[in-house]
Amino acid sequence: MPTKPLTNCKFPRCPVKVPPGDVYCHEHELQVNKDYQRGRETTHGKLYTKRWDKARRMFLRENPLCVECRRKERVTPANEVDHIIPHRGDVALFWNTENWEALCKPCHTAKTNSEDGGFGNKKREHGREVR
Asked: Which residues make Cβ contacts (< 8 Å) with residue 17, sequence separation at least 6?
């Protein structure tokens, strides 16, 4: 049974032949993956640092109860700091303490899902549907 011919590694000036379906030789596959991962630091990784952990703990110490539960006349300890207006990577909005509120895990999850379109909800921004 005939097989497909080997092809050249797609890395510039690499003479190595690779099996059908492979793009790079083993050496260049490792290099390309390493370069790709290096450039993938997320906004989450850049903002949610030790500095955030410290600020979050201080905020929760000063605001120990969930604001959403208090609106519903329940007393629940807060364990998450929510950005009232999602920061979407905006550093100034991320660190603006007037944009923070203390929430319990269930309230934070419900709010995030309603904003981000989780559990089949429509994606919302500032109370409006977003496409």
From this structure: 6, 7, 8, 9
d(CA 62, CA 115): 26
Domain segments of the chain: what residues? 7-38, 43-129
Closest Cα partner for 93 from 45, 43, 128, 127?
A: 43
Separation of alpha carbons 79 and 82, rounded Å: 10
**Which tokens is 105 given?**
């895990």
pLDDT digits (tens, 9 = 90+) for 51-76: 999 999 999 999 999 999 999 999 99
> Considering the entire predicted model, what is its pTM?
0.60
**Measured at the alpha carbon of residue 109, what is the angle toward residues 105 and 110, in degrees to the nearest 5?**
120
- ∠117-96-45 over CA atoms, to 5°? 60
Select from 42, 125, 131 the least CA-distant residue to 85. 125
What pLDDT band is residue 81 in, cutting at 50, 70 and 90? very high
